Amino acid sequence: MSVASTSSLPVLLPRKSLPSESSPFEWVPTRDLSSPSPPPPDDTTIEQEMAAARQAMDGRAVRKVRPRRTVDYSGPIGRWTLLRKMRPNSTHVPYLRPAPPYIINLLPPKAYPDNPSTSLCTKFVHTSTNKIRCPVNCVTWTPEGRRVLTGSTSGEFTLWNGLTFNFETILQAHDSAVRAMQFSHSGLYLASADQSGVIKYFQPNMNNLNACQGHREAIRGLSFSPDDARFATASDDSTVRIWSFEESREERVLTGHGWDVKCVEWHPTKGLLVSGSKDNMIKFWDPRTGTVLSTVHYHKNTIQALAWSPDGNFVASASRDQTVRVFDIRAMKEFRVLKGHKKEVCSVAWHPVHPLVVSGGSEGSILHWDVSSSSGPLPNAPSPIQPRATLSQAHDSNVWSLAYHPLGHILVSASNDHTTRFWSRERPGDAASVFSGGGEKPPEATVADEDDDVFVPGFSHVGWDEGPSMNGNGPDGYGREQEEFIPGFGATDSASSAPPIGGMNGAGRGDMSSGPVGGRGGPLPSQESVFGQGDSEEQWGRGGGGGGANPNGYNGGYGGGPAAGYGGGGGGRGFGGGAGGGGHDGGGYGGSGGGGGGGGGGGFRGGRGGRYGPRRPRY
């Protein structure tokens, strides 16, 4: 076998050594030249937690570990910042479609200045509970809005994450129950007070700076001045005291209340104090002179909480007389009376953006109120207004404290039932919030009295006592006034020639006839020849409708037989059943065979469905 000469073999050169015609125009990467690394393996944390839970449960069913729900405000803020740059005018707000998937387009409350309803925080998000359960007396957001700080009766501070709502840290801050706490307006310091009258200063990292004995008895309220140079405290020793923050020195004692002072709040921008007491009075103070400027005596029981509106023009008060009252300090008059709580009101807070007030009651309810000028009339004597939203079982016990996120999209509540709960805005187009552990379910239709005339769709009130009806009470058994019909259940032009329903004639017509049953007349003539007429004999077919009110109780029932109860009977035995009669008690049984009959309709008390068919509701 001869070997080919080397001159006949093709010349093989490296590909890179041959320049391409389009090489000057090709893109060449300059970084990340190595091949991409594969994605990291799946996180095994959840599997490990599930394995540990199964081992601890010893073979019993284990709940699946689910990720925490997160309410992040950065997305809406970023979208709102972009839209403010691109909107055609300063008042333009994009339309939000009322459907849950469009929650991605939901903007912060600040973007809807004319629509307070977008800021009703009624959707339950999360419940946070300490391992050592004890009542939570006060709650506040950190100034940057990333965390929530709670104070409990055990004297502990608990810090919760404001996005994922998980536990972050706990601190034994006081030796007795924490009763009040507030961050300074600068956000650099935290002041807190306890049951024994001790006041403490903290830094945001929970480093204790100072402690002093402020009152002889429990301190119930604490509030900073607008410049953070001073703060005021209210105590069960019937006094309000003003303190120099830097020196921890008492500057003035305000005496004037005749009983325990339960709350005190400094005006957000001015030198004005308001305090509420067990003597049922609200007092306005001048902190410079320590004198009383005005006294308001509208409540009939202890004032439990006070809150200034963000603009400082209104102050809301919560009392044990089950009311929340809003005062206009410009005219020093009562502006709104909010009645809706079934027991005493324990806490109150204002929304940071909209004219909304939220209140918490001792029965565990949380009520949202709209106190804008358009929410109701403004008479000389303010009339009560209804709450915009109600969470009747938000907690199992007293709601001691409420606090809105600085942006206004989340509400946090602290309760005597040892829990801290978070509430967010509803998704667009969502129904009423449903909270499985308590909370308001969608409103149900009220049960009317049996003798009330209630409108039911399909059971018209037109012609209540006029002329013939469609339930066998007309002169010829069929009514002639209603021309609309459902195929198989409507009246026809030949209705006058049809025999009476269930053997009922004009002579046997009752005097207690109900209104016409819309679309429920006798069968069409073409069906009568197939299914037969309703009479006293039981037939396999569509039975006759019941008669009117007959004290003897006849003319109805199974195909026109004896009726059950006083009034018209139901339809006959068969697949079709029958349209029930309209009497005082409505129809009897609709039918017992096949698919069952429609129940007796149109009476003051509707009848029942067939034995094997659906039962009609009672109206």
UniProtKB/TrEMBL annotation:
Disordered: annotated span: 1-43, 491-548, 564-619
Domain of life: Eukaryota
Biological process annotations from GO: mRNA 3'-end processing
Compartments reported by the entry: Nucleus
Signal peptide per UniProt: none
Ranges of biased composition (kind: Gly residues): 564-612
One Gene Ontology cellular component annotation held by this UniProt entry: mRNA cleavage and polyadenylation specificity factor complex
InterPro entries assigned to the protein according to its UniProt record, in alphabetical order: Pfs2-like, WD40/YVTN_repeat-like_dom_sf, WD40_PAC1, WD40_repeat_dom_sf, WD40_rpt
Function summary: Required for 3'-end cleavage and polyadenylation of pre-mRNAs. Also involved in chromosome segregation where it has a role in chromosome attachment to the mitotic spindle.
Name recorded for this polypeptide: Polyadenylation factor subunit 2
Originating species: Hermanssonia centrifuga
